[in-house]
Amino acid sequence: MALDYFLLVFIASFGVYQILSIHAGLKGLWLFRHQKIQYIFGVLVIIGAYGWFFITKRAAIQIQREVEGPQQLGLFLAAIVSSYIVTVIMSSIIQARGSRREKEPVKGKQHEQGIETLKTTTVLGGVISSLRNEREDKD
Fold first, then answer.
1. Residue-wise over 103-126: b if at least 16 C-beta within 10 A, else e?
2. CB within 8 Å of 49: residues ≥ 6 apart
3. Residues whose CB falls within 8 Å of the CB of residue 19, separated by 6 or more in sequence, listed in order
4. Is 2 within 8 Å of 76 (Cβ atoms)?
5. Average pLDDT over residues 128-136
6. What is the DSSP code (8-state) at residue 58?
């Protein structure tokens, strides 16, 4: 039952990340190029996760008996963190494979930092760009 709960939260939070990335303008987390497809995908993932969990597993009753509070919290936190990591990896792979390389910022120009980086690039792209810029600044 614990694995079922973990999968529910993992899959549902994956869908939530996809929807929230639209509203926050974080194109670096998108799996699709079009907002409508991204939004529909996120909604379907969430509905699918809850449908699978509550209809096929009869989990609403079982979860109260088998997964205790502290265990449920641990599973919840592990699932949302794991889902974010998978989202970052998948979006980086998909966007690197299907996109053209954009020009690097002009030297001396201030670079975006923190979560603002995700508005223009993926996490992996941001890390690589940051490391490259740091190395150039030292030279």
1. eeeeeeeeeeeeeebbebbbbbbb
2. 7, 8, 11, 12, 15
3. 38, 39, 42, 43, 46
4. no
5. 72
6. -
The residue with tokens 């699709």 is 32
pLDDT tens per residue, range 53-107: 888 766 555 555 677 778 889 999 999 999 999 998 898 888 876 655 544 444 4
Cα separation, 30 vs 108, in Å, equals 29
Q: What is the pTM of this model?
A: 0.74
Q: Is 137 exposed, middle or buried (0-12, 13-18, 19+ CB in 10 A)?
A: exposed
Full DSSP string of 75-129: HHHHHHHHHHHHHHHHHHHHHHHHSPPPPPPPTTSPPP-GGGGGGTS-HHHHHHH
Residue 1's Cβ-side half-sphere holds a number of Cα atoms within 13 Å equal to 14
R_g of the chain, CA atoms, integer Å:
19
DSSP 74: H
